Amino acid sequence: MTKEITKIPGKYTGSGQGKESEINLEVEVGSDKIVNVKPLDKYAPDSLADNAFKKMAQKIVDHQSVDVDVVSGASETSRGIIEGVKEALGKAQVDFAALKENSSHSTTSGKKTVDVDVAVVGAGGAGVAAALAARQHGASVALIEKTISPLGASTFAGGMFAGDSQQQKEKNAVVSKKWLYDEYMDASQGYMNSILVRRIIDESGKTVDWLNENGAIMKLVDAGTGGSYDHIGMPATLHGYQEGGTKAVTKLIEKFKSLGGQMYFGFAGQRLLQDENGNVTGVVAQGDDQVLHVNAKKVIIATGGFGGNPKMRKEYLGDVSTQGQVLQNTGDGLNMAWDAGTAHHINGSTHYFWQTFSDEDIGEMAKIVGPNWMPINALADFPNLRVNNRGQRYASETHALDFAVHGAELSEQPQQTEFVVLDQAMLDKIKEGGTVAIEDHYGKWKDHREFYMEFNFPTDTDEAIKREHEKVDFTALLDKLSSTNVVSIGKTIKELAQRMGVDEENLQNAVDQYNNAKKKGEDDLFFSDTKRMIPVEQGPFYAVKFIARNLGTLGGATIDEKMHALAPDGEPVPNLYVAGADASGMYGKAYVDFEGGTLGFAYISGRLAGIDAAETAKAGK
C-alpha cells in the first residue's frame, strides 16, 4: 500500500540549471504519487532537449523518484530537470522518505536476443556509415546507440574532407593526393599508419559521393569560410553539411531502417561475446530495463573515443586535459575492444581545436545575461595578445585563427588556460566600424556566397560579412560579466593583472614586448605577423579567459587498412573492426591542419568497415 507523500496535492513549478540556460517545468503531485512532469520551456520537436525531457519525465514518474540515472548525452539537462523537480516537490511539501518507500526502482526486467550478420556499436558518423554500407552490401545489421537520439561529434561537425569528389571534379578543383598525404605527415611527424592514411585519402571522394546519394547532403566550400583566416587560399577540401550534422546522421539512419536495418537507441554496449578460440561472436548491451544480446558474425566498434571520461583522460593523457565536447563518449567501445584482445595504441592524440569556456564559466555568465554571453566569443577571433595563467605571452597570436594549431598550443599551457588581452581603443574601433575595422575575414566572398552548417547553425559568408560590419559596443557586456571569472577589467595593466590573478611583472613584460614588436615591425620572440598585431595601449584594459577546446580523443585501438582490430602480435582479432575516433593510425600528437579531417576519417573508415564486414560475413570468412 502506498503512503501519503503530501497533504497539498496540486501542480507546482520548479527550475534547474541546464548547460546554457535555466530549465523551467511543472510537476503534478497527487496525495501519494508524482502524477506528471511537463516542460514550461518550448523545445524543438525531436531535438535532444525535447527527447531528454520526455525520457527524464518518464523515468521520474515510472520510478516515483528523483534518484534516476541521467540521459546519456544530455547529463547536464538531466541534472537540471532533477533539480527543478526537487524544487517543485519541495513546494508541495512532499515527504521524501515516504516517496522513497513508495518508489518502484526498476531493475532489468528482461532480455532480448537478436541474430544478425553484423552488429555496430555506436551511431555517430562512423557507426552509421558502417551500418548502412553493410546493409547495402546484403548483410543483416543491428545498430546500437546508448543515447536516445542521434548525437556525437558527427552531429555538430561542419563537414568532411575529400580530394576527388564528383563536385571537385566538376569544379576542376581536385586536390593532390600528395598534398593531402603531406599534410597528414606534417601533422603526425611520421606517427601514422601510412598504408591506412593512403587508403582513407583514396576513398574520400567516393565516400562524399555516397553520402550525398544517401541523403547526407554535403557541398564543397572554399577553405577559410568557417572563420579560419589562416586557411584562406588553401585547397578546398571541406564538403560542408547543407542541413546540419544532426539532420544528416538522422537521414542516414532513416535510410538504414528503410532497408531493413535494426536500430536500437538507448542501449549501451557492455561487452563483446567471444567463443573459446577468441573469435568475436556478438555484443551485449544494456538499456534502462532490458538487456540486448546480439549474436553477430562481425562486430564494428565506433563509439567516439574517451573525451568524456575523466578517469581515462587522466590515465592516458595526463593530469591536465579539458573535458571532451561529447560527454557520452566515455571509452566504452575501446574498453570492449581491449578486453577482447585488441592492442592498446594511444599516442596522446586529442582533437584540440580553437578555444572555449568551461561549463562552470558558461553557467555563471548565463545566470547574469542568459544566452547573450555568446557574442564575446568574437573577441577571440583576432591576433590580440594572449597570455597564460602566469601572465606570460606563449605563442604567435597570428596562429589564433589556425584553429588546430592554436588549440594544440593552448593545450600545452598550464591548466590549458589563456587570457585574450585587449584595450579600449580596439573596442572603440568595433563600436564605430564593426569588427571589420580590426581585420576583414570574409570580404573575399562579397560576391561569392559560401554556405554550410556547423554545430547545426548556418555558416554563411553573406551573413558573416553583414555581421563583421555591424557596429557593436562590447563594453557594456564586458562590464556585466566582470563579476565572473571570465572577464577582468583594469584601469592599468597592474590592476588588470591583479584582477586576472596573474603575475603583475609577467603581464607587464608581455604587454611591453608585444607592443614593441608591433612598433618596430618585428617580433623577436614568437615571430608573429606584426602587421596583424593589435596594440594594448589605451585603458581601461580587458582580459577574457578561455580554455582549450577539446572535441574529443583520437585513437586507442590498433587497426589495419581494412579497419580490422589488431592484437598485439599484429594479427586481426577475429571478426572485430574498429572505426572512427576509437581507431589509431591516422594521427600523431596533433589534428591535421586542413578542413574536415576527423569527420572524413569517421565516415570513410565506417563505410569501409561495413563493406568488408558484410562481404566476409556473407562469404563465411
What is the structural class? alpha+beta
How confident is the prediction overall: mean pLDDT?
A: 93
| Rg computed from alpha carbons, rounded to a whole number of angstroms | 26 Å
Helical percentage: 25-40%
Q: Classify the beta-strand content into a percent band.
A: 15-25%
Give an overview in words.
By secondary structure, the chain is α+β, with helices and mostly antiparallel strands. Helix content is 35%, strand content 22%. The chain has 19 helices and 23 strands. The strands form six sheets. Strands 4, 5, 9, 10, 11, 12, 22 and 23 form an eight-stranded mixed beta sheet that branches. Strands 14, 15, 16, 19 and 20 form a five-stranded antiparallel beta sheet that branches.
Summarize the structure.
The protein is an alpha+beta fold and 621 residues long.
Question: Which helices and strands appear, and what pairs or packs with what?
Answer:
Layout: E1 10-17, E2 22-29, E3 34-39, H1 48-63, H2 75-91, H3 96-102, E4 110-121, H4 125-136, E5 141-145, H5 153-156, E6 159-161, H6 166-170, H7 177-188, H8 194-213, E7 218-220, E8 238-241, H9 245-258, E9 262-265, E10 268-274, E11 280-286, E12 290-301, H10 310-317, H11 332-339, E13 344-345, E14 350-356, H12 359-369, E15 385-387, H13 403-411, E16 417-423, H14 424-433, E17 451-454, E18 457-460, H15 461-469, H16 475-481, E19 487-490, H17 493-500, H18 504-520, E20 541-553, E21 556-557, E22 564-566, E23 572-578, H19 597-619
Parallel strand pairs: 4-5, 4-12, 5-9, 12-23
Antiparallel strand pairs: 1-2, 2-3, 6-8, 7-8, 10-11, 11-12, 13-21, 14-20, 15-16, 16-20, 17-18, 19-20, 22-23
Helix pairs in contact: 1-2, 4-9, 4-19, 7-8, 8-19, 17-18
